Amino acid sequence: MKIGFSKADEAFRQEVAQWMAEHLSGEFASLRYRGGPGDEHSFPEERKAWERELAAGGWIGLGWATEQGGRGLSICQQVIFHEEYARAGGPGRMGHIGEGLVGPTLAAFGTPAQQQRLLPGILTGSEFWCQGYSEPGAGSDLANVQTRARLDDTGEHWLISGQKVWTSLAHEADWCFVLARTEPGSQGHHGLSFLLVPMAQAQIRVQPIQQLTGTSEFNEVFFDQAVTRADNLIGQPGDGWKIAMGLLGFERGVSTLGQQMQFQNELDEIIRIARANGASRDPLLRQRIAQAWSGLKVLRYNSLRMLSGPQDGSLKREAMIYKLAWSTWHSDLGKLAMDVLGDEAEILEGAPYQLSRLQSLFLFTRSDTIYGGSNEIQRNIIAERALGMPREARAV
């Protein structure tokens, strides 16, 4: 595990910080600290324009291989970019799923033709992606996917029918990667395939899900014989589970350090308010703030340890505990925010009753231990896959 950075790395840090200061201004100034979890509905068109600004500056695909249009930067420099991006208040990325998940998955499992056709739209910030994994009966239990896909009579197109749920920004996406069952009668991990599906078709209906925050960045997505080309299958029929797990491995990549810097921004805001309203004088609140600070440091060191391994989508033990660790920490931070605010936590200024940043943080963090794999399931994964313990008994 490497904790320090070289002089060249620190020079790169200054380059990133200067670019962010120069470009996150003017027409983009209003995007600072916006569009993160609980606020993803904000400024979608402006954030798409920001993606194009990042692309013009060469800040998309930093870790991608140069032959795939990326810059091939080191893990250290990728970490630095994500940290400085969050430190500067860079907005929630509309292109995160494309750059962080789809790109590496195509690089690992896609054909050269698929890479040449699909990677440029991500690199230029002109095409956006959403994730078609969870279903009403297959959330944390992803192997229970029931969405079906079959080749049409010509063999040139897949026809997809089923329902996905909790699909972030599906209403803004151009593409969706879909885990679907392509082998009739198959169960569990078997018979699944990984398909890339264009969203702009009448056979796909997107329905928003309103959350506690009053926002609707999550959606249900209904596929009614939705069509995608036969060559939009990644890998072979039946490879879906392997590819899906590889993609989830990429999700535990360098962007986790950027996520933690966003957490730091939230903690800094809590500390600022605690000092201003006197809550910092309460010894119990001071202790909880100190615990939050030290807990965030532990998350950082574990992430650096996690990133010291192979970057091929395989999950080390350190990666398997990350979701459980950050979701619990962040959920506690939401509670801390409300206790520091005191009575103000339950007050809104007036119509239209817009939530403050910390109120939105609290409400959204109620879901942290559920989405992306519930904590209960994560504990099973740690026990069975990381520690090699006997599998939990399951009903036949």
UniProtKB/TrEMBL annotation:
Pfam family, one: Acyl-CoA_dh_N
Domain of life (superkingdom): Bacteria
UniProt xrefs under Gene3D superfamilies: Acyl-CoA dehydrogenase/oxidase, N-terminal domain (1.10.540.10), Butyryl-CoA Dehydrogenase, subunit A, domain 2 (2.40.110.10), Butyryl-CoA Dehydrogenase, subunit A, domain 3 (1.20.140.10)
Keyword vocabulary terms for this entry: FAD, Flavoprotein, Oxidoreductase
Domain annotation Acyl-CoA dehydrogenase/oxidase N-terminal: ranges: 8-125
Cofactor(s) this protein cannot do without: FAD
Domain Acyl-CoA dehydrogenase/oxidase C-terminal: 238-386
InterPro entries according to UniProt: Acyl-CoA_Oxase/DH_mid-dom, Acyl-CoA_Oxase/DH_mid-dom_sf, AcylCo_DH-like_C, AcylCo_DH/oxidase_C, AcylCoA_DH/ox_N, AcylCoA_DH/ox_N_sf, AcylCoA_DH/oxidase_NM_dom_sf, Mycobact_Acyl-CoA_DH
Family statement: Belongs to the acyl-CoA dehydrogenase family.
Protein name (Swiss-Prot/TrEMBL): Acyl-CoA dehydrogenase
Source species: Pseudomonas mohnii
